[in-house]
Amino acid sequence: MDVVLYYFITYSFLGWITETIFATCKNKHFVNRGFLYGPFCPIYGFGAILVIVPLESFKAILPTNFFLYFITIIIYAAIFTSLLEYITGYLLEILFHTTWWDYSKNKFNIKGRICLLFSIFWGLGAFIIWEYIHPTIAYLIHSIPINLKNPILYIIILYFIIDITLTVRSLINLHIVLNEMYKLTLDLKNELKENISDIKNEVSQKSKEITNKLESKEKITPEKLMENITNLIDNVHLELKNKQIINRFTELSDLIQKQYSRFFRAFPNIKSTKFNISLNHIKTKLKNKNNQ
To answer: pLDDT tens-digit profile of 45-61?
Structure first.
């Protein structure tokens, strides 16, 4: 069991290194691609266990022909890593009402959680790890002195417990903030409906006033007419009665950007399933709206 835990820890770390290097090169600045605060991507650790542990048990019955051996491992790894990715994405959506990745633009995807292209990548990556990297990893793990193996493992497990606790607490708080933002959007919609009715009545009244003045042949200069029309246009502008709503929405947006920015940097496509919008764009949209 301790060996399996070491596999999980090692491949979680290696997965984090791979993801971080890729994201850092892509964005040209350091990006911590970990779901947790520390340098670990647990999904890679679970994926490694799903692939490596069974393969170690059934290694003797794997095909001897290299082509069949290659295809067997790729298909096996692609199926089980994709299943893990799908379940992980589903649980994150259910528990925290957020999507962390989205393959919906890729062909042959299933609800945006997995897609054929990345499933093939996972299969190829698993084969490379199993065939060329894992033998060294296994050797190093088995080489750890017995008197050090358990203490090291206990320290890392304790760290994982603390990190997971902090991460889950952070995500719960984020969910609470998003719920409040969602309620604010409903309040804004309701207020908009009320204002539309008021605006229609005001426009109708102002239009009648201008029409009556023209029909009564009252002397009205072009400047005066333009002033009336300008006032009419000004009155059409939507002025929310309760400015506290939009102010609170902006405050929450700022709070999300400050306290949860690491999630956005790590997963730029993270979305709220309630808002159906990239959280990283909320602040930008608010600024654009206020500048209009």
So the answer is: 999 999 999 998 888 89
